[in-house]
Amino acid sequence: MNIKKNITLLSIALACAGLTSCDKDTEGLTAITYYPVITLDGPVDYLTEAGKPFVDPGCTAVMDGQDISDQIKVVTSMNLENPAPGYYTVNYTVVNSDGISASATRNVIAADPDDKASGFYTVDTDSYRDYAGYVYYGGYPLQIVGDGAGNYEISDLLGGWYAYRAGYGSDYALQGDVTIDDDGTITLVDSYLIGWGDWANDLTDGHFDAENGTVTWNVSYTEYPFLFIVNATKLTNE
């Protein structure tokens, strides 16, 4: 029995089978695939004026060294000519000839011109949780979005303690509905944390400083209770 010959024949058969499989896997694709890349111009988080046309900072798309920005498709629920107060995403997508896509997203808050509180914030590092001692934290994103009538939604009254610091994700942000008076007083209306199905006990010492673009509040949370002192500073479009 010629074992060497049989092994050689088997190797050839397997190689042929592998080539057939590769042919099927790559069917419909070009010999070389170039991947598109999208780069946003301007900030990812963008504050714009409600009631005025949205001036998109735009983005560029490049594939194999060629500018294909004219192929970018833009999708958003925002009325670009007359945006209402609120929070929106603007999604940019480009697809190559093999159906491989690249995408990027810009977050947009539209606010009335006299609404100084709405915008994107960063939680200051002097924020802390008070429970048997202080634990300081900060550096996390925060959004405050107004409806043009003094009512606001705050993305996380805990300043990112669970959502970012603990890494649990957005379901563990304590979303809050508040009012902000002309003198800057922040008053809690309602709150809810999806992940645990609970809410804040109370919010005290809430204040918005329009001159400095800062907010602060104290939130009591859970029956322990934990006390969160959150300070945050508004970002500008840069």
Describe the structure.
- This protein has 238 residues and is mainly beta.
- Helix content is 12%, strand content 45%.
- The chain contains 2 helices and 17 strands.
- The strands form 3 sheets. Strands 8, 9, 10, 11, 12, 13, 14, 15, 16 and 17 form a 10-stranded antiparallel beta sheet that branches. The protein has a 4-stranded mixed beta sheet with strand order 2-7-6-5, with no helix packed on it.
- A hairpin with a 3-residue loop joins β9 and β10 (134-137).
- Mean pLDDT is 90; it is low at 1-24.
Search tags:
45% strand, 17 strands, 238 residues, mainly beta, 12% helix, 2 helices
Strand content: 35-45%
Q: Biggest sheet, open or closed, and with what strands and sense?
A: 10 strands, antiparallel
Estimate the helix proportion, in percent: 10-25%
- Number of discrete helical segments: 2
Write down how many β-strands occur, each being a DSSP E stretch of 2 or more residues.
17
Mean pLDDT level: 90
Rg, alpha carbons:
26 Å
Roughly how many Å apart are the termini? 78 Å
List the secondary-structure elements in sequence, H or E. Answer: HEEEEEEEEEEEEHEEEEE
Helix/sheet category: mainly beta
Which runs of at least 5 residues are low in confidence (pLDDT < 50)? 1-24
Shape: globular
